[in-house]
Amino acid sequence: QKEVEQDPGPLSVPEGAIVSLNCTYSNSAFQYFMWYRQYSRKGPELLMYTYSSGNKEDGRFTAQVDKSSKYISLFIRDSQPSDSATYLCAMSDNSGYALNFGKGTSLLVTP
Amino acid sequence: NAGVTQTPKFQVLKTGQSMTLQCAQDMNHNSMYWYRQDPGMGLRLIYYSASEGTTDKGEVPNGYNVSRLNKREFSLRLESAAPSQTSVYFCASTRQPEAGSPLHFGNGTRLTVT
């Protein structure tokens, strides 16, 4: 079993919808949680960063971490066609240098 | 403000050929990484360099070698390419080799081995 599981989608929503993207993980030592956005033919770029549990909001984006359930979410409000991309969750514990990535969820926002 | 630059952007090799993928960053970062991304597999770490002068294996190092040429540059070499190495290769960097440090990625090298 991979340490990080993420539904690959694809997920298709109409413009203006609220989008919920999720990852589950098995390693209870994970403390750092990130969401990366990857446009087609580009490298991933950091979107949200959270340490330990709780919520973080940045504009239309909200990241949530529930360590008791080993579950993280990314919510996108008022989704736009420009949000169409692959979203990758990533996480790490306190000991290693390397991030553990989910496989990514492909999102399409249609006008 | 280039960030992480990878060359070449595309490459086609025949089985058994060798090549070096180049990566350079201009952010004065200490740590650099090589990942490969395959459909259905996600991003997998090949090698990383926590600081200049050090390199370590990641999850999938077989068939690859790396060189940390200086603080800015980190290259990935395929000595004898195989079709299983067809992939998109991403170089990334981060300021400090510490847990949870966010990565900055280049735009990838798309490699096909026939």
What does this structure look like?
- The complex is a heterodimer of chains A (111) and B (114).
- Helix content of chain A is 0%, strand content 55%.
- Chain A has strands spanning 4-6, 11-14, 19-25, 32-38, 45-51, 54-58, 61-66, 71-76, 85-92, 100-101, 105-110.
- By secondary structure, chain A is mainly beta.
- In chain A, the strands form two sheets. In chain A, strands 2, 4, 5, 9, 10 and 11 form a six-stranded mixed beta sheet that branches. In chain A, strands 1-3-8-7-6 form a five-stranded antiparallel beta sheet, with no helix packed on it.
- In chain A, strand 6 (54-58) and strand 7 form a beta hairpin.
- Chain B is mainly β and 114 residues long.
- Chain B has no helices and eleven strands.
- Chain B has strands at residues 4-7, 10-13, 19-25, 31-38, 42-49, 56-57, 64-68, 74-78, 87-94, 104-105, 109-113.
- In chain B, strands 2, 4, 5, 6, 9, 10 and 11 form a seven-stranded mixed beta sheet that branches.
- In chain B, a hairpin with a 3-residue loop joins strand 4 and strand 5.
- Chain B is globular, with a radius of gyration of 13 Å.
- The mean pLDDT of chain B is 94.
- Chains A and B meet through strand 5 of A and strand 5 and strand 10 of B.
Relative helix content of chain B = under 10%
- Secondary-structure class of chain A: mainly beta
Q: Which structural class is indicated by helix and strand composition of chain B?
A: mainly beta
Low-confidence stretches of chain B: none
Attribute tags:
heterodimer; A: mainly beta; B: 114 residues; mainly beta
Short description:
Chain A is mainly β. Chain A is built from no helices and eleven strands.
Secondary-structure topology with pairs:
The complex is a heterodimer of chains A (111) and B (114).
Chain A: E1 4-6, E2 11-14, E3 19-25, E4 32-38, E5 45-51, E6 54-58, E7 61-66, E8 71-76, E9 85-92, E10 100-101, E11 105-110
Parallel strand pairs in A: 2-11
Antiparallel strand pairs in A: 1-3, 3-8, 4-5, 4-9, 6-7, 7-8, 9-10, 9-11
Chain B: E1 4-7, E2 10-13, E3 19-25, E4 31-38, E5 42-49, E6 56-57, E7 64-68, E8 74-78, E9 87-94, E10 104-105, E11 109-113
Parallel strand pairs in B: 2-11
Antiparallel strand pairs in B: 1-3, 3-8, 4-5, 4-9, 5-6, 7-8, 9-10, 9-11
